[in-house]
Every structure is written in C-alpha cells, then in structure tokens.
Write a structure and sequence with these properties.
Blueprint lengths: L25 E2 L9 E2 L26 E2 L3 E2 L2 E19 L11 E6 L8 H6 L4 E5 L6 E17 L2 E2 L2 E8 L3 E2 L3 H9 L2 E5 L3 H5 L20 H11 L3 E7 L31 H11 L3 E7 L9 H13 L6 E5 L12 H11 L4 E4 L11 E5 H4 L10 E6 L18 H13 L2 E6 L10 H13 L1
Parallel strand pairs: 12-13, 12-19, 13-14, 14-15, 15-16, 16-17, 17-18, 18-19
Antiparallel strand pairs: 1-11, 2-5, 3-10, 4-9, 5-8, 5-10, 6-7, 6-8
Length: about 450
C-alpha cells in the first residue's frame, strides 16, 4: 500500500464534461500520455513529467518538468490530432519557487508552433495566445474554446520554467466500463490478504534484498482464508502476489527472487506456488479471485517488459483473474517510465474481462477501471458518486497491512459494517485487509471478529 503517501486530488476535478454522457463519466485530460518537448532541460530532467497525471509539484518526487534558466523558456506538446479544447489547466511547482510561474502565456494552434521567441510564436497565423499574470493557487485555468492540436506554455521573461502538470479538457470523456460497474455491484465486500516477505521481516515495506530463506510459512492455509471470507459474507479476495520488495509468491520465470527459492515447498512436495494454492482454495468456495501486483519493484527494477511478462504469467496460468489491484504506479514509478496504456491494452488482450484497480491516488478513470480510496490515508469515498470505487481499509486498529508485531487488535465489528455500508452506498466495494501471520494462517482473534462482522452486516 502507499501508506503515508499523499497524492494530488482527482486531476479532472471540476472540469465540464460533454452533455448527455453516461453516468460516472469524467472529462478526458487530452495531455496525459503525450510526448512533450521543451526549450531546454534542467539537470537531465524529463519533459513529460508535466504530462504524467501527477499534479503534486514536488521536484524531488519527480513530478516537475523543468527548463534551464533562459530567456522565454517554453514547454509544448502535440495532442496527436486537432481536438476541441475548452480549457487548459497549468499546475505550478509546490515545493519552492512558486513565483517563477508568472507572466506566462498559453498558446494553442492546429499547426506546429515552431518559433523560438514568444513574440513570433504569438504572431504565428492561427495561434491563440492568452496571458496569465500570477497564480492565486496551485494552478491556473485558462479558457481556450477552440480546436487545437498543439499547446505551448511560455514565460515572458528570463527564468526557469517549472511545471507540475499541464492538462487540457474539451468534449472527450472517459466512461466507466460495463465490467467495472458490474464488478463493484456484484462484489460489494472482499478480503485483502497482505502476505509476503514483509510478514517475515516484521516491517510493512520489506528489504528488497532480503533472503528468500526468510519466507517460510509453517502452516499455510489458503482454505482457512477462503472459509473466513465465506463466513464474513465476502465475495472475493486480493492476495499480494508481489509487493514493493519484488518477492513473488509464484515461480516466476522473470526472477530468482520468488517462492521457488524459499524453503516453502507446498502441499505436493515440489516447488511451492502460493498463488496457485490461493486460487484453488478460492474456486473451491465459489469466490472470485483478485491479485495485488506492485509495479514498483525495488528488487528487480522498474521495467515495462518485466511488468508485462509477469502479468502475463499471472493472467494465463491460473484461470481467470477477476480483479487486478496495482500499487506503486504513478506515485513511485511515474507513467513517464512505465506508461499506463500499453500495459492496460496488454491486459485486455490476455484477459479481456479482468477489472483493474490502480492505487495511484489520482482519482481518474484514465489510469484505473475502479477508483481506489486507500482509507487509512484518504478516508472513505463519497456516497454520491457514480464512478466505480474501491474503499480499501484495514481490520487492524493500528492500521497495519502486513501482520507484524505492530499489528493490534481487530477493530469493532460496528466500525467495519458502517464503512461497508458507506462504500456500497457510493457505488463502491469494500476491501478489508486481514494479514495472515508468519504461520500462513489468519489469527484466530481476526477470524472471530470476521464471523461477527458476517453475522451483523
């Protein structure tokens, strides 16, 4: 989980969508995922940080596109085709130097803006140019109301140009998929199972260079997990097949840092495969299968190729995976490094009806089928929402995800039932975390509390 990480609010908040669109639709950010250029780059900066969906504006977090100190620096992008643009939203850096983004111009055109000087760019035929003096907050909204393919942000004087994000909205919208809407309706309650190397290192984020021999459950019992879900009235589970430390609970062909290198051998005396044991136990109880997968891999590195190959293993070796829950993407591994759309397209090709929940805290359907609310960080989602939501919470009073010595007593059943009803009222499912202990079983106090929840929900 992205514990303690605060992300920007929904990128398209307040934007005006086209009329007569399906319920739950949101305006599409036309800039997201484009390939910008700029007049120069500061310290080998990446120009597409301002097109990665992340508006938090922190340089150290890799969320700012930044030029050198120069006269009239600019940033620009190609939307790929002429599109209706109602407005452009320009987001400022937030960690320092906020006054630098002042006296700048937003330029829009259907032809490439090639001029280097601001005056020549503004005077180019077909260019609309609008000046912004100073920002009164973290962003400035500029009404354009024209068709455009090319957008440029350019300073008037001499300074650095630092942009957290540039967004453009018009008449294009993103609508919830039928699969996602059906999933949250038919799967209102599920169990999150944080169980991985962290359990054995007694920390929430495991050392990515740990010893596979540390992972050694002595009484692993996915059947107990599944039975407890049934007793609680749950419809599905989500198991942490790979967390941020990169240790895989299946025998992946892409890495030696996996269950096959651990002492655990499974019930058949061969190389263990906890994902398979989990899937089999779920199917035996008529439960739907969810898998947690961290895009951020601190052991093997961040690679689109690795992500695609490991996801292909998970999506083709175990039958249908109903729910794929991503973490670390957008806030640790930016979409500039591992783009969202190629990975999502691959999932659709391999497993067309798998629903994706992506814990990037961006609050947009452009990077997730289901909008995730990490409840200990963000609170419960609104109850007047038409988009499909996932409210992920912990049963632990101390809000731990993996079972460690810091894990406390289970929360009162009334608290959990109340949050379940709130999530379901807001077109959302409720995903309740219960971490198996070092034996591989759910602690009995938690099993008892889950039964109580099931009898009162």
């Amino acid at each position: 989980m992205a514990t303690g990480v605060s992300q920007a609010a929904a990128a398209a908040e307040g934007a005006t969508a086209a009329e007569n669109t399906p319920p739950g639709s949101e305006p599409r950010n036309l800039v997201f995922g484009t390939a910008p250029t700029q007049s120069s780059t500061y310290q080998d900066d990446v120009t597409n940080h301002a097109a990665d969906g992340n508006t938090n504006g922190n340089w150290a977090a890799g969320s700012v596109s930044h030029t050198n100190l120069e006269s009239q620096p600019y940033w620009q992008t190609d939307l790929g085709a002429s599109k209706k643009v109602d407005k452009v939203v320009v987001w400022n850096r937030t960690d320092c130097c906020t006054t630098r983004l002042s006296n700048f111009w937003v330029l829009a055109s259907n032809s490439p803006i090639k001029a280097r000087s601001l005056t020549d760019a503004r005077n180019q035929a077909g260019v609309t140019a609008i000046k912004v003096g100073t920002l009164s907050g973290p962003s400035a909204e500029v009404k354009i109301a024209r068709s455009a393919r090319y957008l440029r942000i350019q300073l008037e004087g001499t300074d650095y140009l630092a942009l957290a994000e540039v967004q453009a909205f018009g008449d294009e919208v993103v609508s919830p998929s039928a699969d996602a809407q059906r999933w949250v309706k038919d799967s209102p309650f599920g169990m999150f199972l944080h169980f991985n190397m962290s359990t054995y290192q007694n920390k929430q984020w495991a050392d990515p260079n740990g010893n596979p021999a540390d992972f050694n459950p002595t009484a692993l019992d996915p059947k107990q997990w599944a039975q407890s879900m049934k007793d609680t009235g749950m419809k599905f589970g989500v198991l942490t097949a790979k967390h941020h430390g990169g240790f895989s609970l299946w025998n992946t062909a892409q890495s030696d840092y996996d269950i096959a290198k651990s002492p655990y051998k499974g019930g058949k005396g061969d190389k263990g495969d906890i994902v398979r044991e989990y899937v089999n136990a779920m199917h035996a109880k008529g439960l739907k299968v969810g898998i947690y997968f961290s895009i951020w891999d601190r052991h093997n590195g961040d690679s689109t190729d690795l992500v695609k190959k490991q996801l292909r293993e998970l999506l083709t070796h175990y039958g249908k995976i109903d729910y794929l829950w991503f973490d670390g993407w957008g806030w640790q591994v930016p979409y500039t490094k591992i783009p969202y759309q190629p990975v999502r397209d691959m999932i659709r090709q391999v497993s067309p009806h798998t629903v994706v929940a992506n814990n990037d805290h961006f609050g947009t359907l452009q990077t997730s089928d289901v909008i995730v609310y990490e409840v200990p960080v963000q609170g419960m989602p609104p109850t007047d929402n038409a988009r499909p939501l996932d409210a992920s919470d912990t049963l632990d009073t101390n809000r731990t995800w993996f079972h460690t010595t810091s894990t406390g007593a289970p929360r009162p059943a009334s608290d959990i039932v109340d949050n379940l009803h709130k999530a379901n009222a807001g077109n959302g499912l409720f995903l309740l975390n219960v971490g198996p202990d070092r034996t591989g079983r759910l602690p009995q106090t938690y099993v008892d509390r889950l039964k109580e929840i099931g009898s009162t929900s």
